[in-house]
Fold each of these.
Amino acid sequence: MNMLIYGLLTGILFGFLLQKARVVRYDKQIGALRFQDMTIVKFMLSAIIVGMVGIHFFDLFGLVQLLYKPLVLGENITGGLLFGLGWGLLGYCPGTQGGALGEGRWDAIWGILGMIIGAGLFAETYPFLKNNVLNWGNYGYLTIPQLIGVNRWLVIGVFGAGAIALFRWFEKKGL
Amino acid sequence: MEMEKRDEGSWSPYIAGGMSGLVIIVSVLWTGQFFGASTSFVRSAGMLGKFFEPERVSQLEYFVRYLPRFDWQLMFVIGIFVGSLIASVWSGSFKWQGVPDMWAERFGTNPVKRGIVAFIGGIIAIFGARLAGGCPSGHGLSGMIQLAVSGLVALVFFFVGGIIMTRIVYFGGKK
């Protein structure tokens, strides 16, 4: 029961911030994909940098439990591409479209309905997919530092520097 | 820098994004939960399916793996709706709108046309997200924060798919 309340509270905080930054809107999401407005990329990368530093810091003391998905190229690539194609049509993400509805963009209802139907379709086809597409190129639980064989703080540093360079470029270009 | 239209009550995406990163850290420290959204649509589909065909739902392997019930993440997704509603009503940016501005500029203000495309987009997007093992929240934010290779691969292909689709949808449009 407590977990449900924590989930709701965390969602409220996140939804509040998403709306404040205006990232839930179709125009912002598609604007990024058309290279016209990089608001969502700024938001995502900022959240990632802060989260990255914090999570790996607390991981040093064993205070957090890492929980990420294994690298399965067949799934990550085909699924990623398919998601992108659908995203380009819908203009909302699974997590943020509730936020779009929250600020009155009611076309998000169609996306939510489509996603419930689509999830049902996935469940129906899962036994078939499992034996075919899924599991191709399975490399298990792999992190970027493990892949290239360097310290994770080096990766975090390079990622952070790259993101800041990108931000400066966005601001210079007025994106 | 170009002059931008003032958007009253909006926050910088860097600040709001960074604060979201802090929310993720607190969430992981406190409840062990990383952000994610797409599994919630599986659980919702299962709950809805139980109304019509309870037998079928109980047999499908995917609904056994992701039981059709409320959990942290589903409440989180509902919370995003609530948080966005609070933020938008509070700051006066709530707007009842069924056709996004960018869409209307290109395809007109017919909400049915927009609705059909959004619905189809939703089906494709969630199917892809489940195939990939996550969406921009689960892979994009949580995966990248943990430096997971799967998160990076999925995030890159989310954008590749999205860019391809918006090129098709807005083919020949202004820049």
Amino acid sequence: MVTTITDPTMVQAMIKAAAIVTDIGGITSHPAILSREMGIPCVVNTKEGTKLIKDGMRLKVDGDKGEVYVLD
Amino acid sequence: MSWIDGFAEGCFRLYAGNVMSAFQPLDFFHFYPLYYDLWLSRIVEVMDKLSVEDKHYQELKDLLPPPSNLRAIIQKLIPTYKGLGHKNTDEIRKVADFIARMLLESCPDDPFAVHSNPLHTQDEVKQIVSSVNWQSGDPQIARNIGRLITAAGSLVHGLYNDIVTDMGWDTYGPYSVEWEGQNYSFLIRDFPNLAPAELWSTQHLPSVKDLKIYALYQGVDWEIAFVGCHTIAKSGQPVQGLKKFSVIADGKTLAPEEIVNLINELSGKAESIYKKIRSLDFEELKKLVMLQECYQLHKLFTAAGIEWRPTPEMTARVENKPLMTGVITMGKLMTDLNEYRELFGINLFAREVLGKA
């Protein structure tokens, strides 16, 4: 799931997501808190994730390093 | 009192690496100063009427919101002082000192949640662990517990807004416990009121009011930090580390399939309530946020026989008024404690309100 910032209107998509990437936010922001609870990787504050990542791209999201890789 | 440095440390970790514009659905810190002086006067009236300064936390705990919410109130008072134009010093100091004392008395080992949120005594923890009807955890259950927390947390985010969230969601621990010969790290996720009928009509509220999630982990080094309610796994894998759990909704222990049903219900309510919030115009949004803010202390006000809802004068202060500007820096990424203390107004607050050099 790639978005500017998550909010509760996206919660049903969030609980199905394999990873979350957002343009803004920090360690205590909505996506970061909830991805930790669900045990899925999350990278916040990418600034331009929604600009650079297009629908259908396969990604690897490394929440520990805070990095997102395009696989193809 | 010299609580401000400890509070600054916990509060800085809340904002470190974050920007203020991430907080939703309103620019709160440029809204509160429009009316906060009037609310503060009412809080002081309530405090005097209940003689709270003569009372220990244990005598008042049933009238107060959870500890993380108390911390959130302080972190709003600090920049609001700047926004109020450095006025109302005595009232702000009285309220801030009272809340800080409640935290020092309720969580003496870590009052400002720098690393933990230890509300319970060791005896209370033992009593809870021995009375819970534990079920065995596995990665699938752990993911569903995470989804349940996501659904409930997102609902709370709408019910109470981004910086009153802690009123509807706190997390306690981590506690080191022994159960049936094994050592665990114990977390309590507490959602004490998912159905505040005073704020929302019944169509927006779920069937469950009180939700508690008890979890025992092994191999996970937990921290609850950043003013509280935020769980951070410093090492280990929470999904693999969940060994025992219990989900209790309105006093009833839920089976795994009931947990899935509750995820669906709460996530649906979370979406619908936030769509409603997104549909509000600016005037409606300001009034909702003010109502949510006042609700934090509704039990204290009610105990004092004073109406907790905003007064007509408070409402008039925000009606057809734009938000303030320049109270704090919205787009600045906070990375340094000293810089944060300056930008967030903590040094000013310490100096002018608390009289601390």
Amino acid sequence: MVVGGRGVRGKRAAAYVVAIVAALPLLAPEAWSGFRLGLADPVLSAMSNLEQPLSVRSPGGIWAVGLALAWFGLAYWRRDFKLWEAALVFLGGGAALARMGNTWLDGAALVLPLARQVALLKLPPIVLSGAVAACLVVAGITLVQARPPELPTAALQAVQRAPLPGKVLADWRWAAELQRQLGSDRSVFASGGLTSEPTDFWLDYARIAQGHEHWAYLLRRLDVGAVLLNSGDQQQKAAELVRSSPDWRVTYDAGDALVAERASP
Amino acid sequence: MSGRLPSIRHLWIVVTITVAFIGPASTPIGIPDVLWSLLRGEWIADHGTLLDSDPFTSAPHVPGPLVNVQWLADLFFHGLDALGGLPLVITGTAVVVALTYALLLAATVSASGHLRLSCLAVCLVYVPAASNLSPRPQTLSYPFFALFILAVMRAEWRKDTRLLWLLPVATAVWANLHGSFFTGLVLLGCAAFGRVVAARHVAPARPYLLALGACLLASMLNPYGPGALIYVASISNNAIIRENVTEWAPTTVSWHEGLMFFVSVLVLGALMLRSRLRLTIVEVVTLLVFGYLAWSSVRVIVWWSLLIAPILARLLGSLFSNPRRRRRRPLASRDRPVVNALIIAGALVIAAFSLPWTKAALPILPESKRAIFADDTPLGIGDYLRAHDRPAGGNMLNSQGWGGYLEWATWPRHQVFLDGRIELHPTQVWLDYLDIVFPSTHWRALLDKYNISYLVLNSVDEADLVADLRVDTDWHLDYEDDQGVVFTRALRSPSAGP
């Protein structure tokens, strides 16, 4: 009896391990930017896919739906589920559908229902181990894929050398790190993350990034004295314009980063 | 059968089909597809041959002859238009929609055996599809898909495979109406796969496989042969379409249709968990495949909604049907033929008043639904262009969303730059168009590149470009209303110099 009890507890614990590891890929996307709960934002969506509602194209979107389907399939097949399981799956799924960045909540909500269903399956340890390994691989891949681009040290030094007047406009993914390195002497836009600036700023930010006709005027209006652009990704068009503009002096241009300071007042 | 007519069964059927009819009959034309379809139909009828290039748009086209798999739909709509104008086009579409839901109701009754729950299921699945029932070639393909569902349901639940042999004939017509004919093939593929998995043997799937093969061959009975299938595949994989056309975008809760899709998934899931009924493998496979397709693209939601009706009715049947109660009090005994007749007559009167010719008299209809065209159609700009020749020596650049209406309203006096037929033009044309209306730093150079001499723009969607044009001395504002503007390139005077 004692041995049997231990066996049951062990299998239940293994099921929890599988469920927790299965939920890890859903935590990965926001692991880099901090966990936040919110609704999708049509303007911020242009900058970050975490601000979009969950879709088939979202990073981890198929995994999120796959886990919910896995729970549903097991519950439907066995005809054995509790109402709280369905409620948790519904709440987590609703949160993820409302905003991709909420998938961490979906992952957390799925752990208990999944664990219960996996425990009921009474799978052999080898299968559970295989599932854990597969989920860890997916979590690792998702974590690496969601990793924001690294701020090159040389680009950082180029910004530090830039003359003081004006603010710094940087790729939003570099803004927080840049602000930390520059200290309080200089102000970096969006250093507090996507929610730290109003919608109008992000509309201008997107216009500049995409090479709007009035990009130079918008930078002047924002009182920008230096820019740190991601020239290989979201701000490719802006980087091209800065390179060819006599109003801007490029002080660093390598890899995916471009630093420029205003050449004329 | 009581013998007294009309019975309550007739009442349920008539009300369900009438509801399906009233929606599209009373809704103004909002999706512009039908407008270029009408133009093409007229051109085909006048010239007695298919188009091999597009005369309605001026933007450069992709190389090679035009593939128009909708030529039969173009002729159908043109025929209605020639007989009774746009009101008859709308009414004809509503009849097609009513036929779709009648076939779907038959399929649902075949699967569930419950008439009233089938009617309820059909009315429920109508909701996510309602915004997608406008007059356009795709709508003409819905009855064909409903016929496929009916054939599969008859084969699954009544062991009657006769209708499967009608499907190749249907496919031969469908493949000349709209590129969505592949959805019928997918449905047959799902049914065949489900049967093979369930029986672990190919033999039970033989009727489906034979029908699938015949349908595949029949789909090549069109002017382009296998080219129609290649066209469908190329449309589905066109990056510009998938990135920029709302209808092809992945389904999310931010779209009304997307929200309806996820609600339908939730309702189905809840019913499956609550019901004692076990879905068949065929049903599970079709739900998974069409569910994935609908999640991938907003456009597929309408097919999903049609497909789930029989499953929904079966699930509702297992939850709500009470055989003991039915035995105690037969349905026929509660029939009130006079009341039934009055309700049926009332439904038919409402349907008659929902028609484009009479709907203005319906007090319950909102003001925005009383016209032939939807509110956001640029009628004023269309009138202005119809009354004025195009400026000499240049092309129009138009707001893409207005292309369909403008070409219908003004061709051949004016030729739009592009419309909603994304596949007509190379990717670079679309990237340039997006750069112009954004506007990017080189929008002026791009207007020169395409020899644009006048612009017809939406004041809201292209607000930044309109603001630029207002202060640009090279452009002159010719027309403006609360929807949009027409700018013409100002003629440079000789004294202005080069």
Amino acid sequence: MNVIEFDRATIEIGGRSVLVDTSLTIRQGEFVGVLGPNGAGKTTLMRAILGLLPPRAGTIRVLGDAPQRGNRDIGYLPQVRTVLPDLRVRGLDFIASSVHGERWGVPSLARADHIMIAKTLAAAGAGDLGARPLAEMSGGERQRLLLAQALLGEPRLLLLDEPLISLDYRYQESVIELVRRFARERNITVLFSAHELNQLIGALDRVLYLGNGRAALGTVEEVVTAPVLSQLYGADIDVVRADGHIFVLSRGRNVEHADHMHDDGHGHHHDHGHHA
Amino acid sequence: MPTICTTTATAIITIMATMLEYDFMRNAFAAAGVAAVVSGLVGYFLVLRGQTFAGHALGHIGFAGATGAALIGVASIWGLVGFTVAAGIGMGLLGERVSGRDVAVGVVLALALGFGLLFLHYYTAFATQVTALLFGNVLAVDRSTIATLIGLAMVTLGGLAAIMRPLIFASLQPELAEAKGVPLRFVSIAFLAIVALAVSESAQIVGILLVFALMVGPPATAQRLVTGLWSGMALSAGLALAEAWLGIAIAYHTDWPVSFCIAMLSALGYFLTRGSFLPRWKAKR
């Protein structure tokens, strides 16, 4: 079954085309890494799938229907995570706010909801975080909590927007491992955007590279090649494979690394100051 | 020991009894109680959202509304309510980004104070009324004002209850809330209108310039002490109530202005919990 279908879809944001006339399909249970230069539209793609940005032309189908805000089958971890530095709300209340958070009235959760939250926290290895205030968590702990939140309510599709950003290497590995294990066990489709391909290679089924209004979807062998990436980046790109790692180079410089260093291409502010 | 306890208890009861013999004291306790609970609850979200500056500005805007109303012969509380609610909605419409909001709020705040001054310029009659407006005069509250305060409190808390769930979600995680279908802008506008009502109430007790004492001090203190949302709200309302009542009692015995006593208690509570004087309560559950 196809979880995501783009049929000649064009997505624009602020008058700029992010995707032009793009068709692609992503099947159930696939783990897809979303990569590409800054400003290529990784976040925009996810927002379109969430129904926050209707396509300019063509159609998008998500789990068989047109994208719709508030789709319960989608778990989402946004890239811009505005956490107030002084936020002393405990982790449990923080993520519980997302459960039926769109309903009016005074918040109240059924017993079943409480059990579901506790189970998901435990499964994500975040059981100990529920009682701690957000302001006292490290970046890695906060990310684990947010990941657990994205997994609440048995989603069938996970959209994770740069979940590795501002985490140190050790936590990055554990985040990837957690997502992969969860997705495999429950046959969840995952879109996982990142700057660095190499860490994801072991977890990926396919990779979706974005750039220059185009998208290339396929296995790493098919997509991460000099001709395909040169077209997407609009520059001469070399792909060097060494010892199971892949380096994407432009005139000898590591493109992905350079991206990471200047990570403000989206005009978003990241939560950089909280390394574990 | 038991004799000391009994003596203290008797002394407190006697003091309370003497204070409550006076009509104006009963009114003061009632009015301050209503306004404090509303301020503590609404203020909790104001602090949670990092919008305390907006709350402050609404008070200043209310000043223009109150003086303007006095100028055209309307009760100043309705000028206060009308202006602050309109301004709250306007602020919500102006923008969502925090940085932009701060600048916009600052500009509107200065403009409102300017208007307040202009209205005062033409309305020179009662300087005492202006002082009451700016710094509060809870000892002069009459029964009809209490009825108005209770009515306003019901509207304010009713509104807060209606939007509470999406408000919490949108305050804690705006990006996710948007994706899940929360109308961020509407929630933001509705909340500022609710804040405006709470500011109008709080201003009746501590005055426009000291609304922070009831709307920011207690919730900020509560958020330092407990990390649960419900416990935080309850503690915030409780602290506001305690500070307001204790402030009136201290004022009664010292002859200091009530607003000063409340502001002092509010600041004291905050700095006590802020500093390392007290061990922080770690959440145990």
